[in-house]
Specification:
The complex is a heterodimer of chains A (117) and B (748). Chain A is built from 4 helices and no strands. Chain A has 117 residues and is mostly helical. Chain A has one domain: Helix Hairpins (Orthogonal Bundle). The longest helix of chain A is centred in the C-terminal third of the chain and has 32 residues. The chains are: A mainly alpha (117), B mainly alpha (748). Chains A and B meet through helix 1, helix 2 and helix 3 of A and helix 24, helix 25, helix 26, helix 27 and helix 28 of B.
């Protein structure tokens, strides 16, 4: 499964990067979301996959004694998911506003250049 | 000074000159003994505010305060009623304080601080007429050049402090032999040269000095006769006992000083603006000083010390009379000025005295200075005649330049339009006359100057010289002096000043260092524009592509160079049906998200990817992640649909080639990430941190869900910050949704 997941992550990364190369603002956001998912899965995979052993201390016990899934990457990913949600929500609304003002979602037309003297 | 500004301009106009005059008397009263004063500043770094008054500093301090007092007095009349007179005194006092600090500093770091202060305050003084663009430009040029020198001095100071293990100049002098043998010696010397040559306007850094003539004349007088530009000479003298005496030190100084003095003296005789003549003759005089330091013998250094005084006296006089002439006639062109002796008699006398001293005609002080110079060159040993020849040629040209400023405007018939002129205020004509008389007086009674000269050489660690004398009897040196004066006078009668010579020189101007530097600056500017346009093009996707390509190249190089592939993947190929089906679902929905022509389908695909990941989290023991992912994914999709459903269809902009290129780059990167993941999976896993949390989650934090305990307890502060970030994002979303733009802000 690890190999399959590694390939999966590669595909997510490739899809994300590809979408970020597009000129459309919406595709850019989709790309960022895909890339974020890929990164989360990568962290998760590198913490090793453990089936059916969540890091939760059993009733009556005071610590995790048997094998269990690594809680540290999970905590990391949880933070990442939440933060990226903040980013996505803001970006989506921003796109909406931008579109209302400039009537295009083409990144190249939104561009303004600093003029050199 | 600032508080009293209003009164300084009107009633209390005499107040500012009390300061330099008082300091002058104070330093004079200290006698000739060496004195020191020291405070800790940054003791951890060995930086002290050490003041050290020896023969060398004394000469400079007396010049700075003495001429300073006269310049302050002169200014009170010269700039009478000027709107910013108070500001001017402020800058001038700051500059004077910095100069005094500079020559008294015994610590390399405080020396640097004062050095920079002189650069900065001189920037304000040169650019004092800040409504003229030429003035601003000159000030900036001067600041850039001397600022470069300042950096060089800082580097030299740090290097010497590192090598010699002290920032004290006296202690460095004691370990001079060690320093001279050190491998970093040449670097230190070059850095010191960089500082001294820029400040003292040596070729090829000389061009800021003529530009600095845009300043009001009192500033030119002060900066160029006695203080600012002599700081470089002071630095060289101060470091002679530390770094001097080697082939590198001496021959570079001889070359640079020699080229500077000949180049500038030659230029000076073709100018017609009095201040321009003085500017170039000042550069030439500085060249002579560097040249003398380069000779390095006892007598040469004595000659340098005496010549500093000689030059300060006559050059300040010439600048001051230039100021008066400019002030009264509104012209500085020697071709138009004539016969002013009839209306400005005291000024003419001062000019004559200064020109005589400059020419080295006995019995002026300049004669003694020139005598010492020739004597030093004559006893130099190898190449003495070449050195002597260069000095004589420079002196002949300088004589001509001095006559042009000091005598030419005052002889001949007086033009009609200047007939109505009358004597300026005594505050203006007394200072130049006083200095002119001093030039003569030191010549007639050299004993007065001898006291300064006696302590000057011991400050450099040398034997005290014989007393100064005006008359040495008939000898070769007297003959050389006479020859100099004779050929100078001959040149004076043969060569009439005119515009032609200058015009001819201008043809060579493209070769001058100033032009080269200007061209260099433009070149750098153009290069940076090209560079910026190349890399800062403003296209987001090419920025991303650059990052991805660089990252891929780095990762790829490392992976294929340093790793041997030795894994057997069989234990990882342990698949179940639902795992495979989830991966298949994900692949299909990613395809939708990327390739769909409909935005809605793409968003739906995105949602399915999220849910699939959610399921993976459930399978592999991460229930909290699954819940979070599920919520967030749902919210994102809803938001997407709600907000974006009204947007138009996707544009089809990219052509096939672009798509192929982007796809290739993206797939390469994705492939590399897959490989990276597999490589990491080969490595043994480190679980120390995990074990710590697993063991302590309940015992320390009383929680059974370890992931939750980490987030809200062990790393609780991080979570708090995360919540803050989310709140800010929420506020931003809210603000954007509520924002109502005015019609004027809507651009089509």
């Amino acid at each position: 499964m690890e190999i399959l997941l590694a390939i999966m992550i590669g595909v997510l990364y490739a899809a994300g990067i590809y979408m970020m190369f597009r000129r459309s603002l919406v595709k850019l956001i989709i790309g960022i979301i895909l890339l974020g998912n890929g990164a989360n899965l990568l962290i998760f995979l590198l913490g090793r996959l453990v089936k059916g052993k969540p890091p939760i201390i059993a009733e009556g016990s005071k610590y995790l004694s048997e094998a269990y899934a690594d809680p540290v990457p999970q905590a990391l990913i949880l933070t990442a998911i939440v933060i990226s949600f903040g980013l996505q929500a803001f970006a989506i609304v921003l796109i909406k506003r931008t579109y209302k003002v400039v009537k295009t979602e083409d990144l190249d037309q939104i561009n303004t250049f600093d003029e050199f003297e | 000074m600032v508080l009293l500004g209003k009164w300084v301009k009107t009633v209390l106009w005499w107040l500012p000159m009390v300061l330099p005059a008082g300091l002058f008397v104070y330093f004079l009263s200290l006698g000739t003994a060496t004195q020191s004063l020291s405070y800790d500043w940054l003791p951890q770094l060995g930086v002290r505010l050490s003041l050290h008054l020896d023969g060398l500093s004394r000469l400079f301090v007396l010049l700075i305060t003495g001429i300073g007092a006269l310049v302050f007095a002169y200014t009170s009349s010269y700039l009478k009623g000027h709107a910013y007179l108070d500001r001017f005194y402020g800058y001038l006092s700051l500059f004077m304080g910095a100069m005094i600090g500079l020559v008294l500093s015994e610590n390399l770091i405080s020396l640097f601080v004062f050095w920079e202060l002189t650069s900065i305050s001189s920037f304000f003084l040169i650019g004092f007429n800040n409504d003229q663009s030429a003035s601003r430009k000159s000030a900036l040029t001067a600041l850039i050049i001397t600022g470069m020198g300042g950096l060089s001095l800082l580097a030299a100071g740090i290097l010497l402090g590192y090598v010699g293990d002290t920032y004290s100049i006296i202690e460095l002098t004691q370990s001079a032999d060690y320093l001279r043998a050190h491998p970093q010696y040449s670097l230190a010397v070059l850095l010191i040269f960089g500082a001294a040559f820029t400040k003292s306007a040596q070729f090829p850094f000389h061009f800021w000095l003529p530009g600095a003539m845009k300043a009001p004349t009192p500033v030119s007088t002060y900066l160029h006769s006695a203080t600012m530009v002599k700081a470089g000479v002071y630095l060289l003298l101060r470091f002679t006992p530390v770094l001097g005496g080697t082939e590198l030190w001496q021959s570079s100084l001889l070359w640079v000083g020699g080229i500077t003095m000949l180049y500038a003296a030659f230029h000076s005789i073709f100018r017609t603006d009095m201040k321009a003549i003085l500017a170039y003759s000042t550069i030439a005089a500085l060249g002579v000083l560097v040249f003398l330091i380069g000779m390095g013998s006892n007598s040469a250094l004595q000659a340098a010390g005496v010549f500093i005084l000689v030059h300060a006296l006559y050059k300040a006089t010439l600048f001051l009379i230039t100021g008066i002439v400019d002030h009264e006639t509104h012209s500085r062109n020697v071709l138009q000025l004539a016969g002013l002796r009839k209306v400005l008699l005291p000024v003419a006398i001062a000019g004559l005295l200064a020109a005589v001293s400059n020419a080295g005609i006995p019995p002026s002080f300049g004669f003694i200075g020139k005598d010492l110079m020739y004597e030093a060159a004559l006893h130099h040993g190898a190449g003495a005649w070449v050195l002597l020849g260069a000095l004589i040629l420079t002196n002949v040209l300088l004589l001509y330049a001095g006559f042009l400023v000091g005598i030419k405007p005052f002889i001949g018939p007086l033009p009609e339009k200047h007939a109505h002129l009358h004597w300026p205020s005594a505050w203006m004509w007394v200072p130049p006359v006083l200095l002119g008389v001093l030039s003569l007086g030191f010549g007639l009674w050299p004993v007065a100057a001898s006291r300064l000269s006696e302590v000057f050489l011991p400050a450099l660690g040398l034997q005290p010289p014989p007393a100064l004398k005006l008359w040495h009897g008939f000898n070769l040196i007297l003959g050389l002096s006479a020859a100099t004066i004779g050929s100078g006078l001959l040149l004076w009668f043969l060569l009439k000043p005119g515009e032609k010579g200058l015009a001819r020189l201008q043809k060579l101007a493209w070769l001058s260092p100033e032009r080269l530097l200007g061209g260099f600056a433009r070149g750098v500017g153009m290069f940076s524009v090209v560079w910026t346009n190349l890399f800062q093009h403003g296209y987001l996707r090419y920025y991303v592509m650059t990052i991805v390509l660089v990252l891929s190249a780095g990762m790829g190089y490392r992976m294929f160079n340093n790793y041997t592939w030795q894994t057997s993947f069989t234990p990882l190929l342990n698949l179940t049906v639902y795992e495979v089906s989830i991966v298949a679902i994900m692949l299909i929905s990613i395809g939708f998200a990327v390739f769909s022509k409909s935005r809605l389908a793409a968003v739906a695909g995105l949602g399915v990817v999220g849910y699939a990941i959610c399921l993976l989290f459930v399978f592999y023991s991460a229930p909290d992640l699954a819940m979070t992912q599920f919520t967030v994914d749902t919210l994102t999709v809803i938001l997407f649909v709600l907000v974006l459903y009204r947007l138009p269809k996707y544009m089809q902009i990219s052509n096939k080639l672009t798509i192929a290129r982007d796809g290739l780059v993206a797939l390469t990167f994705g492939g590399l990430v897959t490989l990276l993941a597999l490589l990491v999976l080969e490595q043994p896993v480190q679980r120390d941190v995990a074990d710590f949390y697993a063991a302590n989650a309940y015992l320390l934090a009383k929680g059974k869900n370890v992931v939750n305990v980490i987030l809200v307890d062990f790393r609780g502060l991080d979570t708090l910050v995360e919540i803050t970030v989310l709140s800010i994002a929420a506020l931003g979303v809210f603000g954007l949704l509520k924002l109502r733009l005015k019609t004027t802000e809507r651009r089509g």
